[in-house]
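Quick one, tokens below. Sequence please?
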């Protein structure tokens, strides 16, 4: 592990190790650079601690990289910022999927996040390396130079800790994004409950008595009642990738948990079916 003033980076001999998909997406950009020898030198800079600091200041990345001179070189990186209108389209799309909102609140980048950005005709991730603006105070005229490229590598590590940095570079901080998303989700839920002007808390208070949800006081005609198994699944597939914590020491833990969850759901469904048919089954 290599530590510096503003970053803590896990570096090994062969690379950054297993990373989330959004980090791999970023790394693909720098690895697409055709001058491989330059990338090799940049990787050595990153691995050996030549990047003294990385600071995410607003919509720009400021870094210092120690080169051959006594004074470190100053590096800047930035992305094109989305307009307010673009962000309105993005937030509207994000708010339509509860899964996206849940994953973002859990600090996880939804793997299909670009579908939300497509609503504005823009992208969250740069499509090619040339879309990333960069400057370095070194005399090398090539861009990216090895100092810029070393910062690219360590930015990927920063994205591992906080994927919201990408949103920040596009013009919205974590706080701004989540607040706007929460407001839009609130409006959607209010409209679904058909309670204009009422708050979500008021809606919950009006429906806290779960027993009333299933009451039906009129007698049922036995000839009209048909008991069938549920036509839909437990809902796990529809929910998408659940934001479950990963444990590197037990890589199969998540899959085992989901299998047990499906098994439990199926057992409960079978028990409910038997009870509905007035058998002697017990819950």
């Amino acid at each position: 592990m290599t530590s510096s003033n503003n970053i803590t980076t896990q570096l090994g001999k062969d690379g950054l190790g297993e990373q989330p998909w959004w980090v791999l997406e970023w790394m693909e950009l720098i690895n697409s650079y055709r001058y491989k020898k330059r990338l090799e030198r940049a990787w050595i800079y990153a691995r050996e601690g030549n990047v003294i600091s990385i600071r995410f200041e607003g919509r720009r990345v400021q870094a210092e990289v120690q080169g051959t001179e006594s004074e470190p070189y100053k590096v800047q990186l930035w992305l094109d910022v989305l307009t307010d209108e673009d962000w309105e389209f993005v937030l509207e799309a994000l708010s339509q999927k509860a899964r996206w909102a849940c994953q973002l609140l859990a600090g996880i980048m939804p793997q299909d996040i670009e579908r939300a950005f497509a609503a504005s005709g823009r992208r969250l991730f740069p499509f090619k390396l040339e879309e990333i603006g960069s400057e370095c105070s070194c005399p090398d005229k090539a861009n990216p130079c090895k100092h810029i490229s070393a910062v690219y590598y360590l930015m990927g590590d920063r994205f591992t800790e906080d994927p919201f940095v990408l949103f920040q570079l596009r013009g919205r901080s974590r706080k701004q994004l989540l607040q706007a998303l929460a407001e839009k989700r609130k409006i959607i839920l209010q409209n679904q409950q058909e309670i204009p002007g009422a708050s979500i808390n008021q809606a919950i208070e009006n429906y806290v008595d779960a027993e009333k949800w299933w009451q039906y006081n009129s007698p049922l005609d036995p000839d009209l009642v048909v008991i069938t198994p549920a036509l839909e699944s437990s809902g796990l597939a529809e929910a998408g990738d659940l934001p479950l914590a990963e444990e590197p020491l037990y890589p199969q833990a998540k899959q085992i948990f989901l299998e047990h969850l499906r098994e439990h759901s199926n057992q409960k469904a079978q028990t409910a079916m038997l009870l509905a048919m007035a058998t002697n089954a017990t819950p």
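The longest helix spans residues 253-276. The two ends are 52 Å apart (CA to CA).
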